[in-house]
Inverse folding.
């Protein structure tokens, strides 16, 4: 690393060499995060089809394989799907706004990938270790909605427009509950840095994770995350039984696939954030030698996979919410719960030290 | 000119062009989207000033919530573009005059002796672990706590007033009563009838 930096500085001068070196280094890091993420997205779609298939007593995709290896049957399916999508024509409907129609999928995937910049994968492994990491995440996830709204409007179709409207109202409502749940997390950790949030959960065992003192907030955050990614049972924005496919009804080929990728990338993001904020990130569940041998990155991956399974399980289990029920859950149930919990947490933080230490398992700080 | 200057000029150019686009574009949806772009570039400029809390809050609040609702409304309106542009040239001199006055005022202040570059040198860059957010929170809840609480109450009053003004009670609406739904028992809904078996024709 040092020698490469010196090479750059010799070529471009001290100041410019350093700038260019930082630029190239960060680009390489970004690719190192984005490529495994997109592969993860591809195989998440495969996992979803397989898991839901087994839940419904089917087998799911079981044909496409690599090099004719029989026990890999089905594993080539996501690759085949991607190739198929690339080959297809992108049809732009008459009367659609061409520029915005093409821009919308890009605007959807951009924040889904940009949010990964501050996600810590282990104690040292993070692209941008910034102070206001939590705020950055909130800002990025709130920007994802633009793609959906613009897609709905630019398609010049009633169904797409209805889907976009539903999605906008839903995301704005659930963002509040999500933000308040995260306020509780930052009250516990007293830091907006995601690495510090994980370090604040360090201790003897998983009883130190924020999952236990903030259990209601964990539920609120995770359910709001499901709603925010427009996944079943909150997928009224797609609502194929009512408005065909919602905001992306007029999209085809790769333009549609980008929406699809963004949805799954957002799912992985929400699962990762829940793992970091409530399940101790890269920390092992017990502080024993055997568990400490496993790298922290693996623990994080296991937690993400565990939470992603819930996303798929929800989809296979619950029927779609009706629209007014979604709004009721967001505004009349989640927001009051989070507001009350913030006040309760603030009161507990004001208790004298001696009383706080008597709490079971020393849960509160 | 170093790297930071380049970023500054790129962001400033985008900001000015998009801000001009907000007022000149023919389509109100484009105007709203360009306003979003100018907010984001403005946040980028604030980041250069080490005001990361304000920058990210601008994106979070204005881009993430306010402008979404704005777009929502603008897209739903069926706006007659020709009618909207009718008085543009008639009112252009007045608008231009106001713009000129504002530019002149800003120039007067910025070129005056109080705000010159000598009076206000760039502050030293803060160390990496300096938390802007923490400092802002400390100041807001200690020194400026009354002003802060007053502003909060003002917003709350406005919110309650907005809801009170638009709220109307309708007698014929069919909304759900969740408590009643939950407390429903099997006996209220289900009637089991015992029937004698019937013969097949």
């Amino acid at each position: 690393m040092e020698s490469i930096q010196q090479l750059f500085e010799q070529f471009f001068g001290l100041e410019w060499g350093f700038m260019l070196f930082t630029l190239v280094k960060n680009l390489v890091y970004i690719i190192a995060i984005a490529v495994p993420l997109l592969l993860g997205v591809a195989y998440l779609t495969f996992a979803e089809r397989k898991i839901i298939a087994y839940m419904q007593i089917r087998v799911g995709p079981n044909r496409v394989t690599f090099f004719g290896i029989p026990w890999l049957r089905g594993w080539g399916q996501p690759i085949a799907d991607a190739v198929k999508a690339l080959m297809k024509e992108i049809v732009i409907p008459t009367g659609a706004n061409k520029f915005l129609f093409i821009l919308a999928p890009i605007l959807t995937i951009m924040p889904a990938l940009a949010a990964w910049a501050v996600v810590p994968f282990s104690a040292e492994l993070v692209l941008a270790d910034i102070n206001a990491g939590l705020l950055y995440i909130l800002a990025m996830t709130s920007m994802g909605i633009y793609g959906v709204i613009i897609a709905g409007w630019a398609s010049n179709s009633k169904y797409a427009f209805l889907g976009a409207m539903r999605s906008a109202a839903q995301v704005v409502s659930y963002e509040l509950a999500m933000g308040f749940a995260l306020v509780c997390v930052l009250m516990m950790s007293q830091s907006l840095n995601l690495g510090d949030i994980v370090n604040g959960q360090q201790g003897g065992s998983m009883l130190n994770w924020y999952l236990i003192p903030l259990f209601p907030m964990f539920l609120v955050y995770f359910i709001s995350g499901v709603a925010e990614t427009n996944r079943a049972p909150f997928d009224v924005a797609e609502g194929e039984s009512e408005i065909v496919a919602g905001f992306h009804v007029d999209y085809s080929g790769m333009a549609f696939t980008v929406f699809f990728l963004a949805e799954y990338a957002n799912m992985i993001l929400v699962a990762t954030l829940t793992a970091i904020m409530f399940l101790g990130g890269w920390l092992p569940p017990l502080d024993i030698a055997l568990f400490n041998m496993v790298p922290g990155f693996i623990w994080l991956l296991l937690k993400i996979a565990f939470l992603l399974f819930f996303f798929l399980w929800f989809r296979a289990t619950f029927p779609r919410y009706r629209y007014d029920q979604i709004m009721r859950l967001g505004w009349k149930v989640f927001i009051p719960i989070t507001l009350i919990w913030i006040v309760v947490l603030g009161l507990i933080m004001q208790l004298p030290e001696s009383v706080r230490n008597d709490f079971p398992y020393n849960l509160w700080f | 000119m170093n790297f930071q200057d380049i970023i500054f000029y790129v962001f400033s150019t985008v900001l000015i062009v998009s801000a001009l686009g907000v007022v000149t574009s023919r389509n109100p949806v484009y105007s709203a989207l360009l306003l979003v772009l100018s907010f984001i570039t403005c946040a980028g400029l604030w980041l250069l000033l080490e005001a990361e809390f304000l920058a990210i809050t601008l994106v979070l609040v204005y881009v993430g919530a306010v402008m979404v609702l704005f777009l929502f409304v603008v897209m739903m309106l069926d706006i007659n573009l020709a009618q909207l542009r009718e008085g543009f040239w008639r009112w252009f001199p007045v608008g231009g005059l106001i713009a000129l006055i504002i530019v002149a005022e800003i120039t007067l202040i910025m070129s005056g002796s109080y705000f010159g570059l000598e009076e206000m040198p760039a502050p030293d860059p803060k160390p990496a672990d300096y938390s802007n957010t923490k400092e802002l929170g400390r100041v807001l809840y200690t020194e400026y706590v009354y002003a802060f609480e007053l502003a909060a109450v003002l917003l709350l009053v406005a919110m309650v007033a907005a809801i009170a003004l638009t709220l109307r009670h309708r007698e014929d609406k069919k909304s759900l009563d969740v408590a009643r739904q939950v407390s429903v028992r099997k006996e209220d809904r289900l009637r089991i009838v015992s029937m004698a078996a019937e013969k097949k024709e």
